[in-house]
Amino acid sequence: MLKICNYLQLTVSFYEYAKDSSKINGPLRAAGGDINKLDSIIQEKVRRLDSSISKSTTPESVYVYRLLNLDYLSSVVGFTSEDLHKLQQTNNGQYDENLVRKLNNVMNSRVYREDGYSSTQLVSGAAVGGRPIELRLELPKGTKAAYVNSRDLTAYYGQQEILLPRGTEYAVGSVDLSNDKKKIIITATIFKSPLYYLNLDRNINIRY
Predict the structure, then answer these.
(1) Per-residue pLDDT for 155 more than 80?
(2) Strand (E) positions, the chain?
(3) Is 81 marked active-site?
(4) Nearest alpha-carbon partner for 163 in 58, 28, 36
(5) What domain of life does the UniProt record list for this protein's source (predicted)?
(6) Active-site residue flag, 119
(7) Which residue segments constitute the domains of the chain, with CATH numbers given?
(8) What is the pLDDT of residue 3?
């Protein structure tokens, strides 16, 4: 019975997160990832999610994907608000190559952190309105992550969702344009241990 109760708690927690992740991620980001600053109800939800994700790891290296809007770039050090405004002025949906090249220069080899949890997908998707950035994350073998593509665990079954732990940090390897210049592709690698990035520049608390 105890095992059943624990499973039910985790199921409810995953489902509630998938239905409205902002209720958990919002407070986590505002608190800089410090759960001691959260109210007791959210703390308990965070602990249940932490416990579940920690029990699952990737059996091999795999790429996951996340579509982002341009506001994601507002937290990037070295890319000004003027740069962002210019980037938004597309030419029939095509982005300025020089600005994307600048993005690559300022983001390459830097480490970024998401204080909340990160919902990603196993399948690369086409750019959608308002979300022209595709973040491609390589998860090394043994990365902690939860596969939640189950009707019991998610409110949006069929998305092949991979949920990454809160506080996930990743190093950007490149920023490129798609062949049609209508999508910005950021390729990065997740770090399993802080020892990996001691010699890299860090740009903390990215928002997405």
Answers:
(1) no
(2) 62-68, 111-114, 118-121, 133-139, 146-147, 161-164, 168-177, 184-190, 202-203
(3) no
(4) 58
(5) Bacteria
(6) yes
(7) 56-203 (3.90.176.10)
(8) 31
